[in-house]
Amino acid sequence: MSAPSMTLFQHPASPFVRKVLVLLHETGQQDRVALETVQVTPISPVPALNEGNPVGKIPALRLADGNVLHDSRVILDYFDHQHVGNPLIPRDGSARWRRLTLASMADAVMDAAVLMRYETALRPADKQWDSWLQEQRNKIRRALAELERDAIAELACHFDIASISVACALGYVDFRHPGLQWRSSNPKLAAWYAEVSQRPSMLATQPPA
């Protein structure tokens, strides 16, 4: 087996990283990538991560030629062009825009959940903004209600960019914000997630306990 030709800067708790790892497992590309774990927050940049990635985002992918790709959506698109199976991101037509829109909704859930985590874990309690936190919760609830109402059949038909993104978003909500108790309001989404969370790719990329 050849040595990995690329390096993925990552943290196992990040839902954005997890999306990339799940796609690598689903497409059999995980051995092509060496994982470099970095501990990064908005107030603690990592110099090695910032090389070629000045905003310090994770995931970031250093290619064999030294160039760096960053933002999970860019990295997912890159890897989806590197395997021989069916694309996990539709290449064109209405399916492309619909699946990417569902994935974007999942990314918004992740964004809100990560911001809540930063607010509660990094900001002193006396400086936390309760109404702002509540609106992040509302964003998550609205997005999950939309998925429950209009997207279950679509999510169930293919485990692709949309399904991967939604599954990773729900996994992160469970991991960092179990108090949201999203299952009681979204039983169809909960049943779908109970099934897909047992896929080998999802089990292999679970966040740390």
Automatic annotation (TrEMBL):
<dbReference type="InterPro" id="IPR036282">
    <property type="entry name" value="Glutathione-S-Trfase_C_sf"/>
</dbReference>
<dbReference type="GO" id="GO:0005737">
    <property type="term" value="C:cytoplasm"/>
</dbReference>
<dbReference type="InterPro" id="IPR050983">
    <property type="entry name" value="GST_Omega/HSP26"/>
</dbReference>
<dbReference type="GO" id="GO:0016740">
    <property type="term" value="F:transferase activity"/>
</dbReference>
<feature type="domain" description="GST N-terminal">
    <location>
        <begin position="4"/>
        <end position="87"/>
    </location>
</feature>
<dbReference type="Pfam" id="PF13410">
    <property type="entry name" value="GST_C_2"/>
</dbReference>
<dbReference type="Pfam" id="PF13417">
    <property type="entry name" value="GST_N_3"/>
</dbReference>
<dbReference type="InterPro" id="IPR036249">
    <property type="entry name" value="Thioredoxin-like_sf"/>
</dbReference>
<dbReference type="InterPro" id="IPR004045">
    <property type="entry name" value="Glutathione_S-Trfase_N"/>
</dbReference>
<protein>
    <submittedName>
        <fullName>Glutathione S-transferase</fullName>
    </submittedName>
</protein>
<keyword id="KW-0808">Transferase</keyword>
